[in-house]
Request: fold
Amino acid sequence: VADTPAKMLALGEEGIIPYIASIGLFRTKAKNLVAAARILVEQYGGEVPLEREALQGLPGVGRKTASVVLNELGVEPAIAVDTHVFRVAHRLGLARGKTPDQVEHELMAAIPDPWRTRAHHWLILHGRYVCLARRPRCGDCAVADLCPSKAGSA
Reply:
């Protein structure tokens, strides 16, 4: 329906809302999508910039989203730190930082180059399905023998 910034801009907020109404904060996200589309059309010829600073300058795009885009497109290895990555990194003793930026910095230092582009996927999936927030499934964990937080003592 809107596979280009120009088409998103043409839809406007009210036109975008029915497509994203099932996600949280959909009104704010629709507003940001239209504002970002306007910037992309007016300043970038309708193309998404592939520089971190330019991406983070778009409405609704923070460091985590920019990291996902740059990592997935192979522009820059990055570890997007969401709630799952933050929790798993702490439980496994890979990071001690108190902010997502600090944890990202620690993970980038701890994870060898060849694994960085996939590491955030592994950490997210591990946090979603095994190392759960309230009841970690340590008995199902492939790295339980290495985990300092094993047996739910996290």
The mean pLDDT is 95. DSSP finds seven helices and no strands in the chain. The two ends are 45 Å apart (CA to CA).
